[in-house]
Hints:
Elements: E1 5-14, E2 17-19, E3 27-29, H1 32-41, E4 46-51, H2 58-74, E5 78-82, H3 88-96, E6 101-105, H4 109-113, H5 115-122, E7 127-130, H6 134-139, H7 141-147, E8 150-153, E9 169-174, H8 181-187, E10 215-221, E11 227-233, H9 235-244, E12 248-251, E13 256-259, E14 268-275, E15 282-288, H10 315-331, H11 338-345, H12 347-365, H13 370-390, H14 395-404
Parallel strand pairs: 1-4, 1-9, 4-5, 5-6, 6-7, 7-8, 8-9, 10-15
Antiparallel strand pairs: 1-2, 2-3, 10-11, 12-13, 14-15
Helix pairs in contact: 1-2, 3-5, 10-13, 12-13
Pfam families: His_biosynth, PRA-CH, PRA-PH
Enzyme class: hydrolase
Subcellular location: Cytoplasm
Amino acid sequence: MSKIRKLIPCIYLYDEKAVKGVSDKTVLFGDPLDLVSVYNEKGVNTIFLYDLSRGMGDEAHEKALDIVKAICKKADGNVIGAGNIKRMEDVKKLLYAGCTKVAINLSEQSEVESLSESSEKFGKEKLYAIFSDNVQTKANKELIEKYTTELIYFPDSINDLASSDIDFTISYVIDDYEKSLDEYKKAVTNENFELFALKGALLWDDLKKNSDGMVPVIVQDYKTDQVLMLAYMNEEAYNKTLETGKMTYFSRNRNELWIKGETSSHYQFVKALYADCDKDTLLASVKQIGAACHTGSYSCFFNEIAKTDYDKKNPQKVLNEVFDVIKDRKINPREGSYTNYLFDKGIDKILKKVGEEATEIVIAAKNPNDNEIVYEMSDFLYHMMVLMAEKNVSWEDITDELSRR
């Protein structure tokens, strides 16, 4: 394992607010979700979330977990949860709230004691270790290597880059949210520090250029796969995109480099970059801030030329459309609606139907004809969506959880 060094911005959560640090409870944001929005707009891929509710009682801890859940839902990238861990159950609560990983503080004995059980339950890839110095790291070296996959360190300054003799990835937690990520990157000269720069598998020379010496780039939304725009890159734009994580193009009209969003603040942050089979076209999967099109439209492709009647049968679209109807029935009841009948009868009736339909799937699976199981699975999914609407669970909640597994 190579010694990768990363920087991660932090949210310190105290009394339902985002504060400056562990020892400094100065309020930065009364609503921590506002700080998440700041990080989203900066293209942050990972947030370190530290719960400072230890010693404040169970009620404060439960409120903190509710905010953790909201933060995980709002954040564009991964969330690493930490703080107030007394037992394996607390690790589970953070993971169930939506955290991708959980960091165990090696300075807290109760957290160290929970390490082996948590690792056995959830897997070592779900656990990181917070360390303060090399002495502490060496003292816990066996535990770290056996039960965790990464080290977390809180530097006093950007120049305080602790080293470790354990061959692990180390993430440095940034306290100063106002300092731009680019400034941090420029401040670090350690050649082993792999910050927010993307490591391109292909060099510019590996790509096939058009007659102008450029490569076209198709840009799509990373969540929906909606095509947003088409632009071009020259060598400088390509390298700048990999360096900064912001989509950068070459304007053929203005004959100059063009950082998308530089004037409008409608930045595009790279989530993934692909080349086609001939390596003469790029596909960028991005987080789009605001609108991609100069007209204000989210996508540049909105001028319909021709269209036939067809059913896309996109699974996610079908599920979303059915779920939207179910949610609408809950808000706007219709007489004679079976969905409204279930809502009127309440949670016990809904659960009874979910259980019945699950049993029908088991019975149908024993039969040789596949048609029956498809029918029963469809029935189950419908009743499951009624339950989701009743409990205010969205498809995004489900897919987010599945993507973390």
